[in-house]
UniProtKB/TrEMBL annotation:
PANTHER family according to UniProt: 3-OXOACYL-[ACYL-CARRIER-PROTEIN] SYNTHASE, MITOCHONDRIAL (PTHR11712:SF336), POLYKETIDE SYNTHASE-RELATED (PTHR11712)
Gene3D superfamilies associated with the record: 3.40.47.10
Protein name: 3-oxoacyl-[acyl-carrier-protein] synthase 2
Source organism per UniProt: Marininema halotolerans
SUPFAM superfamilies: Thiolase-like
Catalytic residues as annotated in Swiss-Prot or TrEMBL: C163
A GO term for molecular function: 3-oxoacyl-[acyl-carrier-protein] synthase activity
GO cellular component, one term: cytosol
Amino acid sequence: MTKRVVITGMGVISPIGNDLSSFWNNVITGQSGIQTVTRFDVSEYPTKIAGEVNDFDPEVYMDKKDVRRMDRFVQFAVGAAKDALKHADLDLTTMDRDRVGVYIGSGIGGLSTLEEEHRKLMEKGPRRVSPFFIPMMIPNMAAGQVSISLGAKGPNSAAISACATGTNAIGDAAKIVERGEADVMIAGGTEATITPMAFAGFCSAKAMSTHNEEPQKASRPFDKERDGFVMGEGAGVLILENLDHALARGATIYAEVVGYGMTGDAHHLTSPAPEGEGAARSMKRALMSAGLAPEDIGYINAHGTSTGPNDKFETMAIKTTFGEHAYKLAVSSTKSMHGHMLGAAGGVEAIITALALKEGILPPTINYEHPDPECDLDYVPNEARKVQVRAALSNSLGFGGHNATIVLKSYEEL
């Protein structure tokens, strides 16, 4: 018999808040965290803006020695995981830690470490490269370090599927709990790639917005005048728990994970498949997995990157999946506020989706000012909406043609 999987805790590090309460308040009031980049000199870059994490002190979560041995993306993951456990009121010292696992991914990994150690190699020679270089850089180390710091000895893995990473990690982790292989999974995504190399690469690809004069208006998903994505950074980590285990300890349940779908476009390195057909198949698989009809879904947290092809094709994919019901759905992209957090996006957006269900408030797509005839759905423009929906869906679509979708549902006793 498969186990029901519920969300009992959440932790977030983001451009719009590093604790769940302030983060959620900024989401529902439509606050933007986009600003001119401060982490390095952007004077020679076409794009000069990003969603930076401010006021993050890793020493709140670990000692100085561990800080020096972790890339920023790993520090974010450890912080978000510890906050999620605290939010879940879950004490691992009272549990069988073989039954607690970690599944946290990163799309790119320790790019800032790679850049710094390469600089040392070129300037000072190979003997000056840190012995911690490799374990600081590799993308799986977010899951590894969270496991080590918490003593979680159950299933341990890392999804690496570009911008679909966070959602793949949550979906895969939910399946582990569903199969009974763990009672608790600490799952999500993390990313910290506001670095010179990442900016240079995305700028060369002409993928990022150059709306530098008004940073907070630059990310405008589904708006006709969108001109590219705005990079963000941070982490989103959820506690996924076997329902029986959660009930036995009197846990607060925020939502239930009921469906998961993933597909491949088999089309192009960076461009989505025509008409979003891969994304549509992912949503259909997620609905089938959940045992829900299209009409059961009331809200979609869209991938919504603020790029021309993505927003157009994701809109088409929603229409393909939901038919006439597509026009009755609420759809929003919170990337308009926190930017595109790449491998962390799915984790952060799953948290938003769960809170939307729990609180009965649908987050807005801010900066929606110029309707696009090719993007003609209800994008919850500019202001949050108080609506209680029964089930919601969150999409993440990544370079390489990775599509991932999870379905969350308000918790109901059978």
